[in-house]
Every structure is written in structure tokens, then in C-alpha cells.
Amino acid sequence: MSAPDLSRCSLNTATVKHASLTEAVEAAAGAGLGAVGLWRHQVQEAGAEKAARIVSDAGLRVSSLCRGGFLTATDDAGIAAALEDNRRAIEEAATVGTRELVFVVGGLPAVSAPGQGPRPDAGPQDRDIVATRARVADRLADLAPVAAEHDVRIVLEPLHPMFAADRAVISTLGQALDLAAPFAPETVGVVVDTYHVWWDPALEESIARAGREGRIASYQVCDWVLPLAAEPLNSRGHVGDGYVDFPTISRWVAAAGYAGDVETEIFNEEIWAADPRRTAETVGARYAAHVLPHL
Amino acid sequence: MSAPDLSRCSLNTATVKHASLTEAVEAAAGAGLGAVGLWRHQVQEAGAEKAARIVSDAGLRVSSLCRGGFLTATDDAGIAAALEDNRRAIEEAATVGTRELVFVVGGLPAVSAPGQGPRPDAGPQDRDIVATRARVADRLADLAPVAAEHDVRIVLEPLHPMFAADRAVISTLGQALDLAAPFAPETVGVVVDTYHVWWDPALEESIARAGREGRIASYQVCDWVLPLAAEPLNSRGHVGDGYVDFPTISRWVAAAGYAGDVETEIFNEEIWAADPRRTAETVGARYAAHVLPHL
């Protein structure tokens, strides 16, 4: 029996959070994977050009860069800061060698800053999610020309509705596609992340639409496991350990014409404590078992 | 300044979980509310006819009965048991004096039983959410004639997608309306529960549709607060303590023609520990402040 083809399997480096960029790249290459997904803080630490070399010297590609976004500020200074930071992110993506810059758009504005939950004693909060979403659309219009100029794609990530208040007011793939609609598909795309969208009754239809519209920029996989972790953000599991129907969703993504990398991005304290090389091997094995046969 | 009209404000007794039925009814009446929402275990303990008297003697109405559902079993015995239990629930609703029987439809079948999460070492799990939803539709077809015969309405409750794996494979109001569509609106309706649907980008449109189709059977209010509790089910907050935009959603519900009771249903350990009379007063005050002016 020949070894499975892991060339489209990518390790998002957040899955091996405590590894250096070099260690993460070595783990991915050692496990036979074809690509890595990077995070800006790593790229900034190494310098974008050097980060690009570390990846290409190992024979890998960069499947995406995480992340831009956080576009929901209401005040001029907050808006200016968000635009400036996202312009830098677009340049970093171009330099590090990926077209796909993942955007997490931010939550309700009064709580975008960490640790600032709304409390009855903290005065009025901005709860207007409709207006917040409209501001996201406005900021995309500001940034799309910058992305186009650098040949980078803004990749909208719908987050699970559990994170709608504090992380991302984009909660479904259909909504992400509506926000992307005014822009060229080369400039604004979407990511299908199983953790965030597996529950969506409109998922099959939205994936097909994303394919028709040429907007699937990334397919990210990890599993929904229960119980939720104390920090719900870190509740994700290895593919196959939870409730997600990977064969079905992978078939939908393939039927939509997606032929790019499949990134595994897991936030999980236990997995972060493991040896990055073992984690990369597990990522490859689970991809081969649950995803690859259905692509 | 005259006292606010709390006649449409209903206390769901789960909000005062540790109170007896009599104590809960006294608390609601004492706070000037117009109705209570009941749970089956309480109704069964008292007997449905006596429960009905306890409520009506206090001058209150029963706004709804919680809950039927859990319809996702795959095996004949599980299906028969679910049908039998729901037939009893329909009879109890009729006897206790409400037309509105709330259904929580159940999660992926291998994990419907408490404490039985899927584990890689526990063998194959049923992860087919598409087929699970189809079974819900089949069971509704079985039960709708029974509900119609008793002049009771099956009220489908979309639960927050956070609960899609283990509690309810209905995650959006639009999906609930699709499942209700084959049946008369007097027989199968939907509940708009702010906690579960506040994040939905299609919410305004789905509420309007629910109104047009005559299916809004209940409007339930409680707030999304963060951080999530260790048991996420018990993370809900009093209206006004969290992120939900009650004025906007209440206006949408009113514009859809809903003129029925507004139930407050909160699962929260801290609120359960409070004096039920104070809790009922808070429910009334928050309703008067955040909901009533927009109805």
C-alpha cells in the first residue's frame, strides 16, 4: 500500500502554538505535509522575507496567513488604526508568499478589547449587531483596493455563533458571501472552517455557492468536541475526535471545485502540550483517514 | 407615572428552578406578571389538572409548556419511546391549559443520552446531521395529527448552534420554519428565543416570515452573557445584562404581528440561588425597561 498523498495537507502553526516557526516547519515537512499556515506574530518575529525562506527551504508552501480583520471600531482613531494594521497585514501576506489573508472581523465594538465584557455597571454597551456588520462592509470597501494592489485576497472567516459577541459578527458562510459579493473573487474570498460552520443547515448550499462564485480561498479542518473547554476558544479537537461529518463536508467542498490546501488549525491546550512532530503526524494521519478519500 | 403593563410578561418557571410550582406562581403573581411558562416535571408532580388550578387561582395564564421533542433516535424502540412520551406531553399541555408545547428536537443520536459524548475509543458515532434532521421531519409528521386532535401546537425551538451536537439539530429560525412548512400553522409553530437566535444574520427576515406564516407561538427573552458558564447551558443572563439588542428584536417580533406572551426563561446558577420573588420582580422590571416599550 502506497503512502497517502499529503501534498494538500497543511499544518496551521497555531496547532503547534509553542513551537518556533522553524520547529513547526520541520514538523510539517517531517510528517510529509505540503504546506503550513502562518500567523502574523511569527512572521513579524522572523521578518517576512526570512519566514518565506524558512518555509520554502523546507520544500513547503504557505497556504494562508492569519490574520487581519477586527474592523468593527466606531471611532475615527479606532478605524484608522484598524486600516493601518490591515494594510501591514496585506503587505506581510504578499512578502511571505501567500495570496490568502484570513480575516476575523471582530465582535460588538465595546467588547473587542480583551477582558472588557459588558456589565450593567459599566454603562451602555453597543449591542447593535446590524450596524456593526454594516461597518465591516465599509471597512472591506476601504481595504479591497489595497489587497488588489498587492495581489492578496482578503479571506472572510465566519466564526461559530458562540463567538458572535466578542470575536466575529460574521457567523455563517452565506453571510460571508453576501459581504464578499461587491468585490472581485480574487480580492475577497471566504474560508470554510469545519469547526465554525459544521452545524449550518444551509452549509451544502453555501459551499456550492462559494464554489460557483470562485471564492473558496481555504478549507480548514478541525473537530467539534464536547464538553467545551473553560476557554471555549480552545475547545477544538483533532479531525475524527468529535461530531463533525468530515466525509460529507469534504465532498461538498470538492464538488464546489476547490483544489487548494486543507489546513488543520486546532486550538487546544492538550494538543499544544504535545510534541509538535507527533502533532504534525497526527494531522497527516487524520487528513488521510477522514478527508483525503472524499476530496 | 403609572405602573408598567406586565400582563404579557411571563415567568418561565425554569428561571426559579428551586421554587415549587406554588412558590413560582406566587412570585409571578406578586410581581404583577400575567403568565407563567411551565415544565412537564412540575406538571406531572402536581398532576396536570391541579397544576392548571394553581395557576388560574392566582389569576395567571399558562403561556407554554416545556418540553417535548428529542426525536432523533435511529432504532425502533427509541422512536416508539419518543412518540409515546410526546403523546403524553401533548395531553399534558391540553390539560394544563396551554396550546403551546415547546419542542427541543434533540442532538446527534449517539449522544442524546446524558454523559455519552463521542470518543474515538467508543466506536463509530452517528455524525450524519443531514439524516438526523430528516428523522426530525419524519417524527413531526407522526406527531402533528396527535397535536391537532388535542388542539395543541408543537412549537419548534431553534437552539444556539453551540448545542447542535448534543441538544438540538435545529439551529436557526429559518430552518425551524422549513420544518414546520408542511403542517398547519395552528399545529406546528416556532419560538423566537433571543438567547438562541440573536446572532443570526437572517433574523429580521426569518421573524417577518414566521409572522407572515402565522407561526410565532412564543417570544422568549434572556440575555447572552460572557464568559460562558462551566456548563454552557446555564450561561444565560437577565435581560439587559449582556449583548442582546432587545429593542431591535422586540420591534421585529411586534412588526411580525405577535401579540402573545413574552416569557423570560433563564438557566443560571446564580439566579437560581436568589429569592424567587426578587427574581420575578427583576424579570418584570427588565421586561418593562428593555422589551415592553418596543412591542
From TrEMBL, chains A, B:
It comes from Isoptericola variabilis (strain 225). GO terms for molecular function: isomerase activity. InterPro entries: IolE/XylAMocC-like, Xyl_isomerase-like_sf, Xyl_isomerase-like_TIM-brl. The keyword Isomerase applies. Residues 25-275 form the Xylose isomerase-like TIM barrel domain. Pfam families: AP_endonuc_2 (PF01261). Keywords: Carbohydrate metabolism, Isomerase. This is Xylose isomerase domain-containing protein TIM barrel. The keyword Cell inner membrane does not apply. It comes from the Bacteria.
